[in-house]
Amino acid sequence: MTDNKAYTRRTFLTSSSLTLASASVAVPAFLQRSAFGMPMAAPGMRSIPGVPEDHVLVVVQLSGGNDGLNMVVPFGNDLYYKARPGIGIPAPQALTISERDGLGLHPQMGGIKGLFDDGLCTVVQGIGYPNPNRSHFMSMDIWHTADTDGTGDGWLGRYFDNQCCGFGKGESGTVEEVSGQPGIAVGRNAPLAMQGRQSKPIAFESPDLFRWTGEDVHESLKQPYDALVSRGEDKALEPNSNASFLMRTALDAQVSSDLIRSAVDRAPRSRYPRTQLGQQLAMVSAMIAAGLDTRVYYVSLGGFDTHAGQGGPQGAHGNLMRTLSDAVKAFYDDLKRQENAERVLTMTFSEFGRRVGQNASGGTDHGTAAPLLLFGPMVRAGILGNHPSLKNLDQGDLKYQIDFRTVYASILENWLKADSEAILGKRFKPAQVFAAT
Amino acid sequence: MIQASPSQAAEPPALPPATLETLPKHQFGFDQARHLLWRAGFGGTPEQIQLLASWGLDKAVDYLVDPSDIPVEEVREDLFASDIMEPLSDLERRRYRAAQARGDEEEIARFRAMRQRRQRDDRQQIRRVQLWWLERMIETPRPLEEKMTLFWHGHFATSYRKIEDSWHMFRQNQMFRSKALGNFGELLFAIIRDPAMIVYLDNQTSRVGAPNENLARELMELFSLGEGNYTEQDIKEGARALTGYTYEDDAFVFQDNNHDKGSKSILGARGQMDGDDFVTAILQKRECSRFMARKLYRFFVGDVPMDPERTSREQNRFIDQLAGVMLRSRYEIAPVLKSLFRSAHFYHESIVGQQIKSPVQLVVGAARSLLTPTRDLNVLVDALDLMGQNILFPPSVKGWDGGRSWINTSTMFVRQNILSYMLTGRMPVGTDRNAREERYDGEALLASLLAADPAAKGDPKRVVEYLLRFTTGRSPTGARDELEAFVASHGGRVSGDILTALLLLITAMPEYQLC
Which domains, and CATH codes, for chain A? Predict the structure, then answer.
């Protein structure tokens, strides 16, 4: 997608990596650690399996409040059809995942049904939290911060803070530097979930924007820019000064930019749908294939606020289900061909589900509990938890069964091998979402 | 005009003086005036720096700290709509309840649609408030007034995200502006009556028998005393003192029937204390002036930790003396800032050019000092968000951490690219809305550079040197060589276009992030 000649920083990397240690240039923090290994890994090359650095988490945010009842359809329950005469998914069309419990996936979710049948998917039912908030902003913040007040740093940001600096929730401190590759969010804005006190994610809509755009003004600017940014630290500078810190970060940024942009240049190994989510996951897959030592990626899909005309098997919500399903399926097909599927756990979530009953506009209003999906060969495949009762409601809304923070705790402890209590600020018994090893 | 660069040898940095001794008058020149303009404002043009330098230290400081004589655009109450989020009238509320009671889905849907329309309108209005404030910071002839407004916004951090009422955010912002260089005590009395803060810290539901501790806690921990200077008991009793402090529509109300009239003991004071008595008790603590002096120091001088034990002895002693000025002036802010901006400490080499610009400082500073077009303010506000300082949406009641937390690999590119946008109109974030092709007029800056240093005419080396000193306050050899080579490879003459290109390069330098 971009001219290879643009990667002058990459040339710098390969040609001078052997002399970096003694050279008096600023050495980017993550390059120091990995100059001889990861960044230039051949496609498909993996680190040693089982080493925690190996593990990757991909978060797929479904923004707007996904209608969980039409995603995982309780087709065996008459109350469902009574509450949704116009938009309910007819039983024969649901893709059955449990005959016994009368549960099936939305008919547009053929791809995910395939993953489910292959033992690569867990459906966690009735996810939520106490005293549910029905404001998009607020509930999203609650999910991002793992805090029912919805304030503070993001839960993944705190994970990075904890890994780099040993901080727990709510602690602050002055850390001189954050080392290691930060999380990467593909999208216009960096999600709150990844904002730590110290650790901030890399965020870009397209990697071609994760670079200095001044060079587009005139080609002759590129060379002096590279020289100015990689000029190295002035010997007169205190290594601890802000000026030194800025020099190192600027160089870090340039090297990350080149790594990421050259990574996504690789052709994917499966066909991705031409949707925004499909393209985002294709980029994530390319970065994983290139051996970036990034541990957390974040992508999102919007449009779930289906107050009106959401449709049934076909229609607006059905299209979203297909978009999600096809993209995730292509992602795992790709990862499998790369031999990286074992390393990559994917989680979907939405800020809330929707009300049980449809409204007068053929849509659904803001609700509460909803299913959460996990993907990857490491998950305890199948259905976890019971479908929330359609009879015993809380003012027309489902009552949650599983606190989402128990899933976070499990991911932090069992997958990212981190201290979930320090990060979440409280002990949550990890949900049993991983296969026994 | 330009003083010789300090020697390039690596020496341990000397420490700034530990006292409020003032800078000897003859030491206030171009570099010092430049420093003052950046820290007490948002930077300035070469002419403005020259002018301040020619006035001398005292007049320059007075001009910035006492701006009441400088005419400024009035903040009119009709700038924004006050009634978008107005609560339902009694009649409407009755109709809504009746509709709920009889299960009238259509009527309920109508109310819901109305609420959603209002929320959408209000989100559009908060964006307009953001644009308005950013533009005001760029245009104001009273930069310190706006800078202190920004300080109070970060200090008494309140986010639209929770309160969802743009009018209340605007009113709070204007309250900060009207008291920006006034009295801290007055601000503290005002903040417990501020509808935006009352909602942000949940005080509207705090009543006798069921006090909410949020406001009482943050009032001491974050707004006035700092951790360790009060007890959990003070929070509990303080929360009782604040019961019944709420608002109706847009105005503060004290609900006598919800107020806890019992006896309380807060921070050593006793009695039937109400919110004002609570604030008075806070202001009587010596720690309050120390805490506020430290916060002002962090904002204007250097990024010291809040914990004195992790701060150098010189800085601690200096901060203590600032606190002394604050106490003697009974919490007036202007005398504190005057002492600060006149001190030799403030102009010490370990202080000058060592602060990482906040995103607002970066953007407003570039517009004010380089005289770039502001182009589409929406793009600038979006960039502030991407750089971590979404004004009127601080991340939490703690405000912004500042310092190094502004900087990471992503924000570094946004910082470089937003400057590239301001200078050339090139979009920093790929979107292409309303791209205005207004050209940056480098000639104006060039003319003012040459006016300041006529000998630079026809001498590109001198122009490069001057530009570096003007924009970054320093002139590192390696950078100077690169820029000179760039000019040489383009005919060796600094035209307006070459000047723009030089500024593109300079503003991408790590040093440009400092002031």
Answer: 55-211+253-424 (3.40.720.10)
